[in-house]
Amino acid sequence: MDLTQGTEKEKNARSKKMMLWFGIGSLIMSFSALISAFIVSSKQRKDKDWLLNYELPDAFLVSVGVILLSSLTFILAKKALKNNDIKMTTIWLLVTLVLGIGFVYSQFEGFNQIISNGYNFTGPTSNITMSYIYLIAIVHIGHVIAGLLSIIVVIYNHFKQKYNPNNMLGLELAANFWHFVDLLWLVLFLFLYFFRDII
Questions:
Q1: List of domains in the chain
Q2: Residue 164 backbone dihedrals phi, psi, to 5 degrees
Q3: pLDDT truncated to tens, each residue of the chain (199 aa)?
Q4: Distance of alpha carbon 180 from alpha carbon 39, whole angstroms
């Protein structure tokens, strides 16, 4: 596809979508590096430094359900906008925002559960395994917060009536990023959950 063809609006939309995918690609590489470091560290572990039978907090599992549900509500918001149903678009966007905040809350609940099990991020009660889990989750939360900010911008623009069935670019970009961070957490959770059984 020739990116120089089409109207200015079409070219602008293509360039913004391409920038988003470049950003997502760089995030994939960043988290791949974190996972690789986790794997390498586990292979070079000393027994006292690496927790073999670690348990993920129950709140992390809850957060998987919450964030996947938020992807569904974002899809419903987009579908409602395509049908020019302003009221339902508003409702589903607000539900998505609440679920996103709920995800962040459940992550911090997970940290509290880890601490209650006697493991801190640093210090004498820390270990390499849990420090990596903290780090992976915290970095992901940072990107979820970026996604939440984009949802807030979308909601603001929606109230300003900037979107309609023929102009959904901002909402589509935010939705694509949100679906990415949702899928990313699912992948990270499954990796951390099943990796403990193969080390």
A1: 8-44+57-195 (1.20.120.80)
A2: -155, 175
A3: 444 566 777 778 888 889 999 999 999 999 999 999 888 887 766 555 677 777 889 999 999 999 999 999 999 999 999 999 999 999 999 999 999 999 999 999 999 998 888 877 777 767 788 888 899 999 999 999 999 999 999 999 999 999 999 999 999 999 999 999 999 999 999 999 888 756 5
A4: 23
Q: What is the pTM of this model?
A: 0.88
